[in-house]
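Lab notebook, bench 4. Still working through the backlog of constructs that have no structural model yet. Next entry is a single chain of 162 residues. Request: give me the structure tokens for it.
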Amino acid sequence: MTKGQNPKTIGLISDTHGLLRPQALRALEGSDLIIHAGDVGDPEILETLKNLAPVFAVRGNVDTDPWALALPETEVIETDAATIYILHDVHALNLDPVAAGFQIIVSGHSHKPSRTEHGSVLLLNPGSAGPRRFDLPVTVAVLHLDAAPWKIDFIDLFGDLK
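Model written out:
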């Protein structure tokens, strides 16, 4: 487990697949920390994100090169507002988040931005910030933990979020 310094604004990014767009960097500016939910594709992406804020990243299914094997498959971030569980594919979730004490689950993989609630657990997917796939938008998200209920902003990097 990792203790965050009580972040109020968390940048969420996933599925960069080796492409970190300048628009994504601008959208994540001001984040207290950044979560990359896997399929990074290039270690330089994490290094660049670290110039903005501390980064917590998990390994995705395309992260198979030797550098990526050092990334965990899951990560836990404890903040004063919530305990966050991170994994790449939410379908691989093999625990009861409520019983485990998690309030937020962050995942990627589907390339579809989403916010759903299952009971008291908030499930977030920032979508894909990498190469465009099919007709899906290219997005990142910003999670605001400074007030209840928590606010999530999905940011379409090309302004075509449907």
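Notes after review: The chain has a mean pLDDT of 93. The chain is about 10% helix and 30% strand. Flag for follow-up if needed.
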